[in-house]
């Protein structure tokens, strides 16, 4: 996608400044500065600036800068070291610049942003205390790939700005704590999300019908998951999950339910011994039959038979 229309751009800021806060505080972008605040004793700086339409390259600086879009309309093109991105300017979008990277921003209309300058040594110390290996300390992974959104970070930035006023010494303590909470949130966001579990597809109707028919034909026999999975031409693990997705119950629960229903049919014959019914329905023995029947029906097979005969 084409970049915003070309406008006269300010001269590229001089290199050698320690942070982007210095670039806007005393570099050639100082004329765009609206306000700048420090967070107590913490080495973090807050900057708010407004710029007209145009391109604004930034030199590499040694700090992380977390910027948030505050006002503006139109399209924005930016490059924070991973290639150029073009997208609508949306209030609330965040960008995290890594240290040591020259960046480029261009807007086709006036805009306002604020950013938090986070010195790399302070960030590295925080990451080490969080148990992150030193080799990964400079990398926030996907957060450096483009813009992202985080309502919690946006809210923290707003609170830090309000509480970091020079005439609010008690607010500085809050701001330092909030800045640490913000860094902790970034650390949490940098970790890849756990992959979603793969979708479990129900057993296809033809295979399900074949399995159900096989169960009905073999209820008197002893069989397990392996035999059922073979009928469906699936692995036992895959079959068990697909069967439950289709039937709403595990294969074992279904087989037990069908054996109980078959037993109830045999119990109609009052002369058929319970031990024989247990054998005909695939239960291990009469005791096993009685236990499972009672658990499911709330009474023993004998009591059920008597209640049906009354």
UniProtKB/TrEMBL annotation:
Signal peptide, first to last residue: none
Sorted UniProt keywords: Activator, DNA-binding, Transcription, Transcription regulation
SMART domains, per the entry: HTH_ARAC
Domain HTH araC/xylS-type as annotated: residue spans: 209-307
Superkingdom, natural source: Bacteria
Matches recorded under Pfam families: AraC_binding, HTH_18
Record keyword Coiled coil present: no
PANTHER family per record: HTH-TYPE TRANSCRIPTIONAL ACTIVATOR RHAS-RELATED
Name of this chain's protein: AraC family transcriptional regulator
Biological source species: Sediminicoccus rosea
Lineage: Bacteria, Pseudomonadati, Pseudomonadota, Alphaproteobacteria, Acetobacterales
């Amino acid at each position: 996608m084409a970049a915003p229309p070309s406008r006269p751009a300010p001269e590229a800021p001089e290199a050698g400044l320690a942070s982007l806060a210095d670039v806007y505080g005393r570099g050639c972008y100082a004329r765009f500065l609206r306000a700048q605040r420090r967070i107590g004793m913490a080495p973090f700086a807050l900057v708010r600036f407004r710029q007209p339409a145009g391109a604004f390259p930034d030199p590499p600086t040694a700090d992380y800068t977390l910027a948030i879009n505050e006002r503006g309309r139109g399209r924005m093109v930016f490059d924070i070291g991973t290639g150029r991105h073009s997208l609508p300017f949306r209030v609330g979008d965040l960008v995290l610049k890594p240290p040591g990277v020259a960046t480029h921003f261009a807007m086709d209309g006036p805009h306002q942003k604020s950013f938090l300058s986070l010195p790399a040594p302070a960030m590295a110390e925080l990451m080490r205390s969080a148990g992150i290996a030193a080799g990964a300390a400079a990398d926030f992974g996907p957060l450096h790939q483009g813009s992202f959104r985080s309502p919690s970070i946006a809210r923290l930035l707003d609170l830090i700005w309000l509480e970091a006023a020079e005439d609010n010494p008690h607010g500085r303590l809050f701001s330092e704590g909030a800045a640490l909470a913000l860094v902790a949130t970034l650390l949490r966001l940098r970790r890849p999300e756990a992959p979603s579990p793969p979708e479990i597809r129900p057993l296809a109707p033809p295979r399900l019908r074949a399995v159900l028919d096989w169960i009905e034909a073999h209820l008197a026999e002893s069989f397990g998951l392996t035999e059922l999975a073979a009928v469906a031409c699936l692995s036992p693990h895959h079959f068990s999950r697909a069967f439950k997705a289709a039937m709403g119950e595990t294969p074992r629960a279904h087989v037990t339910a069908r054996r109980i229903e078959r037993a109830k049919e045999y119990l109609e014959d009052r002369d058929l011994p319970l031990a024989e019914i247990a054998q005909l329905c695939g239960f291990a023995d009469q005791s096993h039959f009685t236990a499972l029947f009672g658990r499911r029906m709330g009474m023993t097979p004998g009591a059920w038979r008597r209640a049906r005969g009354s």
